[in-house]
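Posting for a labmate who doesn't have an account.
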Amino acid sequence: MDADFYTQGIKIDASKIFDYTNKSEPVSECNKISRLLNGGLLVTLDIAKDTKPQDIKKSIEKASELLPSFKPLRHAAICAECGFKDEPFADKCPKCKSPHTV
């Protein structure tokens, strides 16, 4: 399993969803598989860390037009010491300087 959750499904990159229509291969494949499965299909909308909030909103709106259901997924670093998560950081927490991230 490649993801942090139990169910496997199809991953769609949020930056590419603006190029898709109902007839695009990833969208038509998701819809076709979803109709075949009784329990549905997990489609994750993979959002990059550096995506701006207005672009996240637009990609979610576009995905909701094309897909019956999906899960937005964006990984964020959280400081294990103080819980800081307001901005992206790689090495150390900008607030408490701890190197421990979750």
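Reply:
Got it, the structure tokens are right above this. The beta strands are 9-13, 42-46, 71-73.
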